[in-house]
Specification:
The chain has about 400 residues and is of the alpha/beta class. It has 3 domains: about 110 residues, no CATH class; about 120 residues, Periplasmic binding protein-like II (D-Maltodextrin-Binding Protein, domain 2); about 150 residues, D-Maltodextrin-Binding Protein, domain 2 (3-Layer(aba) Sandwich), CATH 3.40.190.10. Helix content is about 35%, strand content about 20%. The protein contains 12 helices and 16 strands. Strands 4, 5, 6, 7, 9, 10, 11, 12, 15 and 16 form a 10-stranded mixed beta sheet that branches. Strand 4, helix 3 and strand 5 form a beta-alpha-beta unit. Helix 1 packs antiparallel against helix 2. It is globular, with a radius of gyration of 26 Å.
Length: about 400
Amino acid sequence: MNHLFFTHTGNSREWNGMLRQTASFESEKITPMQVPTPEHSPNVSFLLSPNRQNPGGLQNGLQQVIKPFIWLSLLTISLLAGGCKKEGGASAEAENDTTVVSTTFGRYEGAIRGRATIVADEALREMVENQLKSFQVMYKGTDIQVMYLPGESAVETLLNADSIFLGVLARQLSEEEVRFLKGKSRTARMLAQATEGVAVVVHRSNPDSLFTEKELTQMLNGEITNWKQLTPANPLGEVTLVIDKARGGVSQYLRDSVMRGNAVRGRVFSVDSTAGVLEYVARTPGALGIISLTPISDLDDPEVKKIRRTVRIAALEKRADASGCAAAGDFFQPYQSYLATGCYPWRRNIFTVLTETQFGLATGFVSYIDSDQGQRIIHKSGLVPAHTIPRLVQFPPKSTGTDIVK
């Protein structure tokens, strides 16, 4: 697994960003913290993300790297105090070294101090807010403001705003978008953080709640317009499709991943929010809504439980290439385990897209989301974290045989 590294070489600083660009949520090898070797003594690298080797993560990494500099600084000052009495010429060089130490600390501190504005797909608000609350409790000197916009508007803002260096998006940037950033001397570092589902919801009175991908595609292209075409006994009449905003991430997913680039031609209209979709479906028997799962994924949230009781969440047929699903049946709802195994077919990855060229607060926040703690927050919310969370199991002492009851 690739992580974010910061390298200090002599008196120069170079930002070396290596980000995991994968949609996999399988267990990945965690790289140990790098330790300076004698032949590379000027180089100091530290791992930002908390992991098995560096459970303290960002703050612990900072402390481990900065402590040697602090001791070196104190030693320099001590020598300087003695040297000033003997050789005035040596003091200027020592003072310059001390300044370098101070500047280095300030650059590290930028990841956990200050203010920043980021942009996020508004369908991912719950996930971002959960991460942000935890991050700002841990690092009290941070102030991150989030602009929540429809998916495609969020991408455009990230590309065009000169003061926004992080987007939390439901897709990667296209090659054209990456080239656009390069033209502005910015590099997009895309990191898959989670997998979520695109959910289908129907009215609670609807007898149809099992769908194949072919049937849903036929609804979207206008071939199926009446519920009787699916089930002759279904009395609900016309099929009305409703989604969250025409420029939202779900619309983009339907065009790109379901319709394969073709336009949606069915009887479809959009509303202002995911909540609006759910409310419309709850009061319209013939409606079928398509939404991001994230707003209703946390089954421990009483409000989410209440909302989910107002509609029926449909089950979709597994894809032919889905393995390990046969024992569970052919149709699956977007539960966490079925998203992880691929049994539920409509799923997409959530990415952090970092364009920051300096070691700043956006980088610190991305590192936190990718840490064990950040991934646990994703797991608790009902989504699938991008990498496996370490779990320690303590077994009882091995029996010697003397405690066996005869």
